[in-house]
Amino acid sequence: MASSGTGLFYVFGGFVLGLFVFIKGLLWFKEKRLIEDIPTSTIRSIAMGLVEIYGKAFPSDSTILKGPFAKKDCCHYKATVEKLVSSGKSSHWEVIKTEERGDHFYIQDETGKVLVETKEAQLEIPVDFEFQTGFHKSIPQDIAAYLKANSIPTQDFFHFDYTMKFKEYDIEVEDKLFVLGTAGRNPFKQETESAEHTEDIMIQKGQDKQLFLISEKSKREEMKNLGRNTILALLGGGALTIGCLFFILLSFNLL
């Protein structure tokens, strides 16, 4: 009886998971159509509203950032420290420190440059640095110094070393980026009547909460990736939902 109840619990879980994945597929499809329908603009021809641009990243001021692990010149970085937490027979990674810097940077193409905000952006940036302890791999000296400076422990109460993971995601100087967001007023500039009207503009999350994407993939690559994910999510999520629903109805003698 208990075994039957446990099995039904997992079937219900599969139904919910399948439904979630199917809905995610619909959202990816909507996102893909949105990207398809908006032409990529040159920066000089940006108009207020939802826009797509493609260009190179540069710092918004003279300050060039360096991430704590990769030590690369960048305009924005996000670094995380995780530790492996065991609970009974299962284990999971727990983020114990997140550091993110670089709220704004410029995107520049052959026609000009425009300020881009990173707040609330969906960042499609690959991992630039990843290191995991364990298997006789000790923490490098520079990372150990970072942990000490941030008072992050590396051992438990019994002085056993944690298994830890360190990641860093960078938008490096001159990285080519595809940006889809809302062109709105630049709050750091007074409105001007200069020829360089893009000085008054900042790409940001719109008030209507439409898609705000910053990606190292090109538009073509982003659409290809979304198309593949959409098909997998709709087919896989739909199949899992229908299959679990069938077993649920069968278990309650509704078929």
Mind explaining what this structure looks like?
- The chain has 255 residues and is α+β, with helices and mostly antiparallel strands.
- It folds into two domains: 1-37 and 218-255; 39-215, no CATH class.
- Helix content is 31%, strand content 34%.
- The protein has helices spanning 2-37, 141-149, 219-251; strands at 49-59, 65-66, 73-87, 90-101, 104-109, 112-117, 122-124, 127-132, 164-172, 176-185, 201-204, 213-215.
- A five-stranded mixed β-barrel has the order 1-5-6-11-10. Strands 2, 3, 4, 8 and 9 form a five-stranded antiparallel beta sheet that branches.
- Helix 1 (2-37) runs antiparallel to helix 3.
Describe this structure in a few short sentences:
Helices cover 31% and strands 34% of the residues.
What is the mean pLDDT?
90
Count of alpha and pi helical runs: 3
Alpha-beta classification: alpha+beta
Count up the domains. Answer: 2
Shape: flat
The H-and-E topology, N to C, reads as: HEEEEEEEEHEEEEH
Q: Report the helical percentage.
A: 25-40%
Radius of gyration computed on alpha carbons: 23 Å
Name the assembly state. Answer: single chain
In total, the number of strands is: 12
Strand line-up across the major sheet = 1-5-6-11-10
The main pleated sheet reads as: 5 strands, mixed, barrel
**Low-confidence region ranges:** none
Beta-strand proportion: 25-35%
Distance between the termini: 21 Å
